[in-house]
Amino acid sequence: MSARRALLTGASGFVGAALTRRLLADGWEVHLLLREGSSSAGLPPEGERLHLHRHNGDTLQLIDIMRAAAPEAVFHLASLFLATHKPEDVTRLIQSNLLFSTQLAEAMAACGVRHLVNTGTSWEHYEDEAYNPVCLYAATKQAFSALLRYYVEVHGLRVVTLKLFDTYGAGDPRPKVLNLLKRVALEGSSLGMSPGEQLMDLVYIDDAVQAFITAYERLADGRQQNAMEEYGVSSGNALPLRELAALYAQVSGKPLAIAWGGRPYREREVMVPWSTYQALPGWQPTTDLATGLALFHNAAS
Q1: Are residues 44 and 148 in the same domain?
Q2: Is residue 78 domain-shared with residue 151, that is, in the same domain?
């Protein structure tokens, strides 16, 4: 029996790289779609079941790549994330999150590829609203969902969008709050932070990857009730940043010198995560926060 075939975008990112490794471990043939110039460091080497394709920005070239890959499903994780943007960032945000994403859907339609696991963000729901983007990045995610409706209605795509909360895990190189805490713990340095009352909702990387697998299975098994579905990928156990830091200190065995209130909250800080999401059927996180923090802290930097 031939291996299932996937085309995956965003493999140079932390979550995308982890999903790549999981698909390979599960026996998939994986085709990675990378921008010209994107690093492939940290990815497994190309081989019989792993193929790298470089996209030059052209829609017709992307159609050729899609035709060559002939995937059963597309996992779309590529995006440009900016918590805040400057005027000079607008073009990059639109190109990465709207133009490229629409080219991807166009290529799927042209090649008869129907199953898409798309990636959104809980930041599309500031103050728990049906739609209120925290930032322009979040707005581009919602804008692509609106564009996807055309491909669903006209070309028969079937889509599950996973709206991620914060993800973390061993080997995470991203400049996020846990890496700040890890540096303080290892170096004994001090850190000025906001007052720390915002709730943090962290999902361990293995659980986040399983959500993508579960979403694909929902598409493949025909369990989807609607052609476009979206689900929140949440730990279900948000806690204040201050408590997260205290737990990290306990897990690491290192005191953390944090000056709470040493810097203000950023504009449109998410104080309470989105709570009115629909849970992905058949999925729930299995790695508790203390275990996940220990795995994160003990991993090589």
Answers
A1: yes
A2: yes
Tell me if 281 is assigned to some domain.
Answer: no
- Tell me phi and psi for residue 293, to 5 degrees: -65, -35
Please say if the pLDDT value at position 2 is more than 80: no
Which tens digits make up the pLDDT trace of 20-76?
Answer: 999 999 999 999 999 887 777 778 888 889 999 999 999 999 999 999 999 999 999
Q: What residues have CB less than 8 Å from 168, skipping those under 6 apart?
A: 176, 178, 202, 203, 204, 205, 292, 296
182 and 96 within one domain: no
Can you state the angle between helices 100-111 and 136-155, rounded to 10 degrees? 20
- pLDDT over 60 at 1, yes or no: no
**Could you tell me the CA-to-CA distances from 229 to 48, 92, 99, 108, 267 in Å, in that order?**
33, 27, 22, 18, 30
Residue 294 has pLDDT above 80, yes or no: yes
pLDDT tens column, 207-261 = 999 999 999 999 999 888 899 999 999 999 999 999 999 999 999 999 999 999 9
CA distance 106 to 60: 9
- Both 86 and 212 in one domain: the answer is yes
Round the CA-based radius of gyration of the chain to a whole number and report it: 19
The two structure tokens encoding residue 281: 């059927």
Kindly state whether residue 278 falls inside one of the protein's structural domains. no
Residues 58 and 138 in one domain: yes
Question: What is the domain count for the chain?
Answer: 2
Instruction: Give the bridge partners for 118, in sequence order.
Output: 76, 161
Domain interval for residue 291: 174-200+238-273+286-298
Same domain, 193 and 207: no
Residues 6+ apart with CB under 8 A from 114: 108, 156, 157, 158
